[in-house]
User: Fold this.
Amino acid sequence: MERYFPIMLDLAERSCLVVGGGKVAERKVGSLLECGAKVTVVSPELVEGLARLAAEGRIVHLPRGYEPGDCTGMFVVIAATDDQAVNEAVAGEARESRCLVNVVDCAAESNFIVPAVARQGALTLAISTGGASPALARRLREDLEEHYGPEYAVFLALMARLRAEVLRRYPPGRDREELFRRLVDSQILAQIRNRDTAGIRLELWNILGKDFPAEELTAGLSFANRQVES
Assistant:
């Protein structure tokens, strides 16, 4: 079995091609758009969701079958048709063009595979079985989604605010590393679950000092679509 190199790709403003217009293609397009990619879809017909994206101008739709040259200038190519010959042709051109290419349900034609992904805000958890059992990868993703709930998205949003202030106030070294460790090991996650704004601020002051601007840095933080009151 191949051993894959795990990597997080920055696709913002990158040109990506999806060949196919069905439900599988729709899921792939959605994932690419979430990452800020510029997506072109080649397919004679589109399912309703893709047609809506095209009408809104969120994707470019070429209403025809795949043609040689479609991969030119693309960073990522995904072949998601139900025609094996078309998928193989897309993969062949993509490899020749040195694109990253994934053929849905055919790792042998791909130079990357897509893991099952669980997301909570800035937290991304990716699970791969190396293609051995996508069903197990999905099951593990569901388990992770239950364990790592929306409080992790709020916590990371808070940590992003805290990090800049901590880096500004404390010089590099063990003391700063210890502060970050204490924040991660603190009761803040539980307090976020309980929407305990006062508790969060008290915890921050206990760890970072009474002069730390905890009220300012927690103001407006969203608790699953609710705002922390100042």
